[in-house]
Design brief:
Blueprint: H1 24-27, H2 31-41, E1 57-61, E2 64-67, E3 72-75, H3 78-81, H4 90-102, H5 114-126, E4 131-137, H6 140-157, E5 165-169, H7 178-182, E6 202-204, H8 221-230, E7 234-239, E8 243-244, E9 250-251, H9 254-266, E10 270-274, E11 298-301, E12 313-318, H10 319-326, H11 343-357, H12 361-376, E13 385-391, E14 394-399, H13 405-414, E15 417-418, E16 425-428, H14 436-452
Parallel strand pairs: 3-15, 5-6, 5-7, 7-10, 10-11
Antiparallel strand pairs: 1-2, 2-3, 4-12, 8-9, 11-12, 13-14, 14-16
Length: 453
């Protein structure tokens, strides 16, 4: 159903550890003083200022992070799901160096450049057929903000400004900026902290039918009622296809997506697919949408887009929506980041996509899935474990009670692995290049740490 022509390019298996412990300046750094300054002045994500331990990384290669004290950790997180080819990859390094010698950055307003054109061509080719306009932006949250603006401006251009709200799913996560927060789960998200500031959206229940269960038609019933009742005020439905990521790591049935697409068409509502976490093969398909064979009106991509080298995201839409926005009162899409389509980021994104599509990523992800399914199953019988589930290169152990984040991270570091749990979830999203032996170290660490806990 897409415009894909590129197929598998050889990557490289992650072998031994890093070649060195970093630059001369890193080797000579007084890390005790540096960490004290870090705690006093740096703010880390989802943490109070100065809260909790942090571990200094001085270099990385393949699937290994080298710490300042000389220890190495096998990375089970792909640096929040982005580093799909592993660290310090020679192909991606070369792309950055060559582009750096030509052009590090230039404004995209009124100018263009080769890496942006090359990247957009690949994205148009690899995504469902109706998507042919590409907006290159800074991050996943911004990609969602742009998608929401596209939907709202489109309906304004159609003379229907009342269609300005979103229908989202409970259990979803779409980013931390204001509009993106508004479509995250209203209970587990940040709505309570920003009451009166976050736009008030409409929420359907989390899809109840699991990915690998028989389809239950009742799973779409309440969604169908909501979209019918609110169709005159809905600009779009927004959802994460198949995998709800940071909102709960829940895998739901592909038929749910097909039903949502049909209901959006029936009620004249746009469909926004957030593939920021799932895109580029993480679920075992290039896009999670491929499990259902549906095309959205707007698509958000990010995270693995550059192979984890630089921040970059993309929002794609159809010619129909782009033309509608062009004929709105504003006459253009009202968004324009300073670093939009940064040439360095675009160049490494092109290299990352080519590396992925010319390699054997499908077999790698299938192998990872099969191995995690076998080896994480030992967690199912442990006290306090609610569920174990695997889809593609995503392995999840869900516990009955919330995890003690800092205590578990410290135990994992002591075990020689980098795993960062959240809430009731201990999960693995390793780089696709991980070897079976290294993956076994990750899964065994999860089993052992949960057994000890």
């Amino acid at each position: 159903m897409g415009k894909r022509g590129l197929q598998d390019e050889p990557g490289r298996e992650a072998g031994g550890g890093p070649r060195g412990a970093g630059t001369d300046s890193e080797r000579g750094r007084d890390w005790a003083s540096a960490l004290a300054w870090d705690q006093a002045h740096l703010w880390h994500p989802y943490a109070a200022a100065g809260e909790g331990p942090v571990w200094p990384v001085v270099s990385a290669e393949g699937v290994r992070l080298r710490l300042a004290d000389g220890r190495t950790l096998i990375d089970g997180m792909s640096s929040w799901w982005a580093v799909i080819h592993g660290y310090n990859h020679p192909v991606l390094n070369r792309a950055v160096r060559e582009q750096l010698d030509r052009l590090a950055h230039v404004m995209f307003g009124g100018l263009t450049h080769g890496p942006a054109i090359d990247l957009a061509k690949r994205l148009v080719d690899l995504t469902p057929t109706p998507l042919e306009r590409v907006f290159l932006c800074d991050s996943g949250s911004v990609a969602v903000e742009v998608a929401i603006k596209m939907a709202i401006q489109y309906w304004q251009a159609r003379g229907q400004p009342a269609k300005h709200r979103l229908l989202a799913l409970r259990g979803g996560y779409h980013g931390d900026t204001l509009a993106a927060m508004s479509v995250c789960d209203p209970i587990t998200g940040m709505h309570r902290l920003f009451t009166g500031l976050v736009p008030q959206q409409i929420f359907a229940p989390r899809p109840t039918c699991p990915f690998d269960a028989p389809w239950d038609p009742s799973a779409i019933a309440e969604f169908a009622q909501l979209i019918a009742a609110h169709k005159d005020e809905l600009a779009a439905v927004i959802l994460e296809p198949i995998v709800q990521g940071a909102g709960g790591m829940w895998f739901y049935h592909p038929q749910y997506l097909r039903e949502v697409r049909a209901l959006c068409d029936a009620h004249d509502v746009l469909l926004i697919a957030d593939e920021i976490a799932t895109g580029f093969g993480r679920t075992g398909r290039l896009l999670a949408l491929d499990y259902a064979g549906v095309a959205p009106d707007i698509l958000c991509l990010g995270k693995a887009l550059t192979g984890g080298y630089m921040t970059l995201a993309a929002t794609l839409t159809t010619a129909r929506i782009a033309a509608g926005i062009a004929h709105s009162d504003a006459g253009c899409l009202m968004h324009g980041p300073t670093f939009m389509a940064n040439p360095l980021a675009c160049a490494v994104a092109v290299a990352s996509i080519d590396l992925l599509m010319a390699g054997d990523w499908q077999d790698r992800v299938r192998r990872i899935a099969d191995q995690m399914t076998r080896e994480l199953e030992a967690c199912r019988g442990l006290d306090g474990v609610r569920d174990v589930r695997v889809l593609g290169a995503i392995g999840v152990v869900e516990t009955e009670a919330p995890c003690d984040l800092h205590a578990l991270m410290a135990r994992f570091v002591d075990a020689g692995v980098w795993i960062r749990p959240f809430g009731r979830l201990i999960y693995l999203m390793p780089p696709y290049v991980i070897s079976p032996d290294d993956l076994s170290v990750l899964t065994a660490s999860v089993v052992r740490v949960l057994s000890d806990a």
